């Protein structure tokens, strides 16, 4: 299930963030800022663990209303199950398939992920991260909407 972020999700989101972006994780204040400014565009994926009878937050996406993806991450134990795809699909539905995202040039997994979703490389921004260039990837009419 995908729903809006709630304050009580914060610790789980921070755990995912630290695993996903160990070099430069967002901190709690950044997440709370996005939750305040874009409450409709900060979404979490809730996994229902039927064996343990509990719900776990296993991924999130933050995007701007016009479709710029600020960040997305899925807990490592839950990757390659289509969760990232579902999160991006919700964002794209709200933006009629338009989206853009910056990706570290070394982040081969993220580049493959976005290519799989129909994004293409638009340009490179030198030194975007201070220590690395960014690849800008864009989607105009995503195949996952069709
Ligand atoms: C990128 C990320 C969000 C993908 O989440 P996910 O839930 O694993 O993605 P999906 O299961 O929806 O993958 C969809 C497709 O993307 C591609 N893909 C995803 N992970 C991949 C990997 N490790 N290697 C190669 N291709 C991959 C595949 O084509 C995959 O389809 P398939 O599993 O049928 O082959 C996740 O790997 C992550 O959190 N990474 C760390 C944070 C990050 O880099 N975020 C993006 C920064 S902009």
Note down, in words, how this protein is organized.
The structure is a single chain. With 146 residues, the protein is α+β, with helices and mostly antiparallel strands. It has one domain (2-145): 3-Layer(aba) Sandwich (Aminopeptidase), CATH 3.40.630.30. It is 29% helix and 31% strand. The strands form 2 sheets. It has a 4-stranded antiparallel sheet with strand order 1-2-3-4, sandwiched between helices. Coenzyme A binds at residues 20, 72-74, 79-85, 101, 103, 107, 109-110, 112-113, 116. Coenzyme A binds next to strand 4, helix 3, strand 5 and helix 4.
What is the H/E string?
A: EHHEEEHEHEE
Largest sheet: 4 strands, antiparallel
- Name the CATH superfamily assignment: Gcn5-related N-acetyltransferase (GNAT)
Under the CATH scheme, which architecture would be assigned?
3-Layer(aba) Sandwich
| Tally of DSSP β-strands | 7
General shape: globular
Q: What is the third-level CATH name, the topology?
A: Aminopeptidase
Judged by helices, strands and strand pairing, the structural class is: alpha+beta
Instruction: Pick out the low-confidence regions.
Output: none
Bound molecules: coenzyme A
Compute the number of helices: 4
What is the count of structural domains? 1
- What is the helix content? 25-40%
Q: From the alpha-carbon coordinates, what is the Rg to the nearest angstrom? A: 15 Å
Sheet with the most strands: spatial strand order: 1-2-3-4
Calculate the terminal CA-CA distance, rounded to whole Å: 21 Å
The percentage of residues in β strands lies in: 25-35%
